[in-house]
Amino acid sequence: MSRGRAAGRGAAKAQDQGWAWMVLLAAVVLQALTLGFPCCIGVFFTDLQHEFQASNSETSWFPSIMVAVLHGGGPLCSLLVKRFGCRFAVMLGGLLSGLGMVSSSFCKSISQLFLTAGFITGLGSCFSFQAGVTVLGYYFVRWQTLANAVASTGVSLGFTLWPLLSQYLLNEMGWRNTFLIFGGILLNCCVCGAIMRPIGSLPQPSEPEEEPGSRAEEAQLSNGAPPPHAALQQHNNRTTCFQALQKYLAFDIFCQNKGYQIYTIGVTWMMMGFALPHVYLVPYAIHNGVDERRAALLISVIGLINIFIRPLTGLLSGHRVFTGRRIYLFTLAVLLCGLSNFICVISAEFSVLILYCIILSIAMSGIGALTFQVLMDVVEMDRFSSALGLFTILESITLLLGPPLTGLLVDITSDFRYVFYTSSFFLISAALFMGLSFCALEKKNKLREASKVPLNNPSRYQYSETPSEPQAESQPPPAVEYITSI
Q1: CB of 275 within 8 A of CB of 419?
Q2: Which Pfam families does this chain map to (predicted)?
Q3: Which of 26, 67, 245, 276 could form a Cys-Cys staple with 192, CB 3.0–4.6 A?
Q4: pTM of the model
């Protein structure tokens, strides 16, 4: 017992100071290496098409698989973290990411890229990123919000640097050697993981006593005797499986909490069009006569502006004026993102595309800064991790399907403008759905509250079906978190 207390005191001393800031630096690099990486795939789009004689739809499958696995692998990563720890998960992810890109340099068909660059690299990036964010919850308590905000700047750095590096290496040595070099760069995730040494164990509550008869049943099993009440045991096993699914995938919240239901459906629908400009902007610019170097610069412009706008958006949304109203800021950002796509349809000149990237980046900053904050507003914090698990899996499905289906439309019409028409349709319709639905839900809740006796301690969750008590600041972070970034 004294050892547990000593370990707990050691863990507390390591938080918010000293080595914690080195861990934060490693988290910034991790997010640049993992979340920022898929943005550069558009630079290779045309070369891969010519190399494998593939259509737009076929070529877009492997970046779609990469992004979908990166976002949807959260529950698998959480199990890995729970069993082996954050450091192991980050280093394993770096090894898989590097292996995937090295293998991609030897691929002989576009379908082989689906496995190597798509699944293996995507899964490795998921492990490294999500475990890297989870470990921040252990190293930071007082400065946790600041640490997460600083770590998220790594995404913008990746958006800025990856396309420029990709275009340079592509011009100098071709896509195969570039992918080989990328494999070596992604192995640096292992270095970041090595920095994230275990902080020590926090004091754990005592284990509950076993029920009478449980040891007898265990003895029967060890002696080879059949367990009593086999039908009851099978029922208990099914119940356990259901409880596990409910823990990691919050189907009960989805059915009972209207706010969570609306938000999850809206964001899932939004993701059908959200990733399309990242995949097709560079091919669209090249197709319309923009130089390859300048076309790659477009993605970097989006990342550079994100570095400055995203933190400002986070500070603005944190003002008390927007408490309980952040969903409307988020809806406005999604609407602006959808409307900005019409700029590309008007003209494909480089100066016009730069203007498009500036407006798109501002809208993206709002979406990225608010996505998980809004989710915290509509879901009780004690169920946030499981709610986020279902949330990320559903959005990963539409992230997977959006680019290939749009690529098929481009193949049929031979017109890249349909990419931006499609993106605008999904984004604008999602914004209208969420905005109008939350307005209706808020009015319904106000009418319901007006007909009841007001409570002394109303819930701070504006759209939850059931109130919950806010967690104390001193409470240790959850053992597992599913976190993604947009």
Answers
A1: no
A2: MFS_1
A3: 26
A4: 0.72
- What tokens appear for 206 in the block? 């005592």
CB 90 within 8 A of CB 192: yes
Poorest-confidence range of 112-126, 154-168, 374-388? Answer: 374-388
Residues in the chain: 486
For the chain, how far is it from start to end, CA to CA, in angstroms? 43
What is the third-level CATH fold of 251-450? Growth Hormone; Chain: A; (1.20.1250)
* Res 299: pLDDT: 86
Q: Do 117 and 104 contact (CB within 8 A), yes or no?
A: yes
Q: For residues 31 and 162, what is the distance between their CA atoms, to the nearest angstrom?
A: 12
**Residue (of 274, 290, 293, 287) closest to 417 by Cα position:** 287
Residue bearing the bigger pLDDT, 62 or 234:
62
- Domain extents in the chain: 14-198, 251-450
Instruction: Assess if CATH 1.20.1250.20 describes domain 14-198.
Output: yes
Contact criterion met (CB below 8 Å) for 273 and 427: yes
CA 83 – CA 79 distance, rounded (Å): 6
Closest listed residue to residue 256, CA positions, set 372, 383, 371: 383
